[in-house]
Structures are given as C-alpha cells and as structure tokens.
C-alpha cells in the first residue's frame, strides 16, 4: 500500500468521525423542539461584575432595571475599576432601591482575578437563584429574567442561556465572531441535551447559590484567571441538574470586538481554561477540532494530487451539506442566518485562528481578565 493510499484511507476515517459528530451530537440541538416551562415567581439576584465599564453600564444597565419581573435585585460588582464605574453604579443605585453595590478593592493574593470579585458578589446576593451577565450585555427583551428563571426546578439548579453578538454590516470579522459564537452555543446546547453538559457562557448563565457553595465556589480553579463560567459549569453540571434555555426572549446581546487583535486577546483568555475540563470533555472536543483540521488538510492534499478526486470532492460536498443542515436548523432558533452562505470559508478561517491561539498560548500567558 502506497503512502497516498494510506492518506486516503485515513481521510475516510476522519470523514467518518466528522459525520458521527455532526449527525449524532450536534443534531441534538438542531432538531430539538423547545419545551414549554411554567413561569415561576422566584426571587432572583442578577449579578454583573464590571471592571472599567462606566460607558457600557450607562448603555446596558437600563435594560436590566426595566425587566418585567416581580422580584429581583441587581448586584453590581465594581472590580477595582480605575474609571468612573463606581460613580455610575452609585447613580443607578440612588435611583433604584433594588440595586446593591459590592465595591471590591484589589488585594495582592487575588489581584486581577475576576473570580475573587464574583465570589464576594455571590456572597452579597440576597436570593438563592443567581442570574449572571456582563456589563456590556443587553437582554433582547424585558422577559429575560422570567424566561431564564422558568427553567429552575427541584432538580434543575443550572440554566444555560444563549448570548450572541450584534451584527455589523459588511464585516467579515463580525461574521466570523458570530459564527464562532453560534458554533459554541450549538455544541454546549447539544452536549447538554445529550446528557453531557460541559460549559456555559457568563454573559447568560444562571445557577443556585447553594450549588456554588456546595462546590466550594471557584477554589479548584482559582489559580486560573479565566473560567468563572465554563470551568465552574464543567465542574458542577450533570445531566440531571442542568437545563438549556433558548427562547428568543431569553437571549442577551453584546457588541462584538471591532478588530482581529482585540478578538484574538479575548479568545486567548477563553481558551486558557480548556485544559482544565474533565477528561471525557477534553477528549471529545479535541477529537472534533483535530478531525476538522485533518479533514480539510487531507481533503485539499488529495485534491491537489488528484487522487480519487471524485470521491474526495463528493465527501467534501456531502459534509458541507450536513453542516449546512445542522446550522440551518440551529439558526432558526438562535438567529444569524446570514453566516450560512459563508460556512466553509468561516470554518477554515476559524480553524487557522484557533491553531494560532493554541500555539501562542503555549509560549505566552495572559494573567488578568481585563
């Protein structure tokens, strides 16, 4: 057997892995029908940790204050800001009696660690049901709290929501950011529905306070500056205690990064926590990424040398069709239908982007969340 033949058969194995991943795992969300949950009148603490976010708070905090919900407080955490964040918080608190401020001063042991500030905010929260978002996030409706809190139950102590990014016209970078965010959401929603939750995003995430303290908070990964959302969920989430919420009224929306460099820095921070995931999650996610990379690398190589090019091309088109189907059904639930036409291009660029981050993280570490 020649080397080219070995490469071809290896390519077939990779294709099989990709088809299994998309047809079994990711269709868990793509074909999922939303369930109706009865609305609950439970008291909720909305927690927002902000570091130098004065302008964002001015723009986005009113959308939290104006939520149509009977009983909620807003816990604003000022994480050692050097701008006017605290003054903005104090102004909102003077006008709304359901706002509580936690002013965190930097200390040497936990300097620059968002988890320390969040822990103080969680301790200060009056209610057992906690709903998290960021200072630059805006709920798309006045029923965000109602939709997310409706998923809590006797067993369901964790609720994973969806947070997207605003659309910017004529921007390939913006499409790439929204594609990556969409793919991530499809993955963690699908795995949760499959019975293997592994992460959530802090821009739209809810859990019970006693879940936090039963796990000793962030102590098992306090040494890592990132991961206050995904690492914590990876630690405590199970099939029985985790629910997903993807009604359109439950979404939050953020302004995306405007430059490739700033997005690169943001994704570096997010990816640094991945090596601390549970072994089974790292294995499945790594297999997906590696098989993605190998699929395109081997496919392009075989096409260049024209080895069984008709079979290779057919498999490429078949895979693109499968991915398009998964994303088409998913975008009906989560939006961002405009990324569909650029799927192969966006996927290839994202693979290169992620490899670059992986290599860069090996040689350089980022220590602080802001």
UniProtKB/TrEMBL annotation:
It comes from the Bacteria. Gene3D superfamilies: Spore Coat Polysaccharide Biosynthesis Protein SpsA, Chain A (3.90.550.10). One of its GO terms (molecular function) is glycosyltransferase activity. Its EC number is 2.4.-.-. Pfam families: Glycos_transf_2. Belongs to the glycosyltransferase 2 family. The chain crosses the membrane at residues 6-32, 284-305, 311-329, 341-363. This is Glycosyltransferase. Residues 45-179 form the Glycosyltransferase 2-like domain. Keywords: Glycosyltransferase, Membrane, Transferase, Transmembrane, Transmembrane helix.
């Amino acid at each position: 057997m020649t080397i080219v033949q070995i490469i071809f058969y290896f390519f077939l194995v990779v294709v099989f892995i990709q088809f299994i991943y998309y047809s079994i795992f990711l269709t868990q969300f793509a074909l999922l029908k939303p369930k109706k949950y009865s609305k609950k009148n439970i008291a909720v603490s909305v927690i927002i940790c902000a570091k130098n976010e004065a302008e964002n708070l001015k723009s986005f905090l009113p959308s939290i204050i104006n939520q149509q919900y009977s009983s909620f407080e807003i816990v604003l955490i000022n994480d050692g800001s050097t701008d006017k964040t605290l003054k903005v918080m104090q102004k909102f608190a003077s006008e709304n009696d359901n706002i509580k401020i936690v002013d965190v001063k930097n200390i040497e042991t936990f300097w620059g660690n968002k988890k320390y500030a969040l822990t103080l905010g969680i301790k200060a929260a009056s209610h057992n049901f906690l709903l998290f978002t960021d200072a630059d996030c805006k709920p798309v409706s006045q029923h965000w709290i109602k939709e997310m809190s409706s998923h809590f139950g006797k067993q369901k102590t964790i609720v994973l929501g969806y947070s997207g990014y605003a659309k910017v016209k004529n921007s390939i970078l913006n499409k790439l950011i929204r594609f990556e965010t969409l793919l991530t959401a499809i993955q963690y929603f699908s795995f949760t529905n499959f019975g293997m939750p592994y992460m959530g995003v802090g821009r739209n995430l809810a859990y019970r306070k006693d879940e936090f303290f039963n796990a000793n908070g962030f102590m098992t990964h306090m040494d890592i500056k990132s991961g206050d959302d995904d690492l914590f969920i990876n630690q405590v989430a199970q099939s029985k205690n985790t629910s997903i919420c993807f009604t359109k009224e439950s979404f939050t929306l953020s302004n995306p990064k405007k430059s490739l460099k700033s997005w690169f820095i943001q994704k570096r921070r997010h990816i640094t926590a991945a090596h601390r995931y549970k072994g089974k999650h790292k294995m499945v996610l790594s297999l997906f990424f590696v098989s993605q990379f190998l699929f395109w690398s081997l496919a392009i190589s075989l096409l260049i040398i024209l080895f069984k090019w008709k079979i290779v091309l057919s498999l490429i088109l078949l895979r693109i069709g499968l991915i398009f189907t998964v994303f088409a059904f998913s975008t009906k639930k989560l939006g961002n239908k405009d990324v569909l036409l650029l799927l192969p291009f966006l996927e290839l660029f994202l693979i290169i982007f992620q490899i670059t981050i992986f290599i860069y993280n090996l040689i350089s570490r980022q220590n602080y969340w802001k």
